[in-house]
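Hi Y.,

Following your request, here is the sequence exactly as I used it, all 245 residues.
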Amino acid sequence: MIKKIFFTIIFSVMMMQMMYAQVSYGIRSGINFSKWEGDDLELIEDLLDKTDGYVVTKGKKGLHIGGYVRIPMGEVFSFEPGLQYSKKGYSIKGDFQIPVLKYFGINIGAQVQQHYIDIPLVIKANVVKGLQVYAGPQVSFLARSSLNAKLGILGISIFNKGFGITERFNKVDLGLTGGIGYEFDNGLNVQAGYDHGLSKLDKNDNYEAFNRVVKISGGLYFLIPVNMKEAVSGNGYCFLFAPKP
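Below is the corresponding structure, written out as tokens. Let me know if you'd prefer a different format.
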């Protein structure tokens, strides 16, 4: 019920702004550096520290790609809802160079790959010409999750298999997102951001873990130089797409 009310309010605000503002849109893609964080995971990492580096946790690299709509709210601020695919996860890697075993070159690894659809709903501020900061809530929907495990000896893969584990995780991850970016006059832009998950990942509450993601991306921004109110009041809708001058 709360989610329905939340999306209804957001949709209403978007429509009101679009009626009176010049709407623009953009595309964006980049790299994720993701990991899980939580009290239970800290206990695991403390135990792994005692292995002297033989077994370590690592962040997971992934891709994000999608688009966004920019709705002006004055000279400085704008509302920017988006929709993007984002790959996140967590990994553990072991490289057993123990003297008695080092000649065997034993290595193991396990990683969780999670595929999300992110909907960031941010307020963006133009600090100075080109420089922007943004922050707001984000709703992420889990599309698929898998566990990949592998074992190698002497450089030979002994075991490498994936398992579907989507049902073990909550489908919705509510969080916060924010960052900083720079936009050039030709519409090209770059930004660095951080996603802070607020919802527990495990559906059964067996452990406490949350998504943490650092994102670096580039994009292209376009302008629709037509006032939506005028377009709606005419003979149908009229959208004129043109790069930002």
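The longest helix spans residues 2-20.

Thanks again,
Q.
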